[in-house]
Task: structure prediction
Amino acid sequence: MKLFKTLFATALILLSSAAFSANIQVQAVSQHVHILSGKDYGTNIGLFDTPDGLVLIDPMPGEPYLAELEKTIQTIYRKPVTHIINTHAHADHTGGNAFFASRGAQLVTGTINRFDITHRVVKSHTGTDNIYYYKPGNVIFVGDVFDTSWHPTFYAGGVAGFNQAIETILSLGDEQSLVVPGHGEAASKTLLRAFRQNTLDWVNMVRTLSKQGLSLEQIMADKRAVELVARFNPQGKSPFLPSKAYERFVQRTLQVIEHESL
Result:
């Protein structure tokens, strides 16, 4: 039975990637759950076919792509989006809200107690990060609390907020739950735990080097820092982080550490 489910899911993914759009990638998680992502922004967009309507999570911006996104959704379900929800307020996750609202979809904010969704609010990537667990698909959309294509960005909640957010995600569903990050490939809870440990190791390493009196530039050049950053690059992208992004990552981490010591 397990083998059949795996083969079914694989077939759906292959059909999805071949049938829709050059700019919109589609992954079928189940008959009622799809993950879509746009070529430019790479935002993971959730699509749930629920008894209360078609729910869209985090529609990306970009006028040329939104019409294509809508067409892709119509190809999958042949009905309009009725509701929109967001994991957080950043434009790469909310930029398409107005487009779908203009076509009749309702933007749902605040606490959500419908659509078979379990909703939790944490503070990590931003001051308000929404976590959505859709039980019928056993899938968890977590926004940019988790990213499998970039370094962690836990600046709003610091280490404590980050830890609480990860624990919240782990408390939902079961070990077979699919965890969908804000960007990058969907992952297991095992990989989420590894992401947490790598993040904590990173903060502790930067804290240690800073206490030793190393400058920002010296921390960036330290072999331990370079090796730890590489852990956030499971796909082996080259280059992974542009120099300015790497500098900003170290700088923001130092700010978190300084704030927590006050």
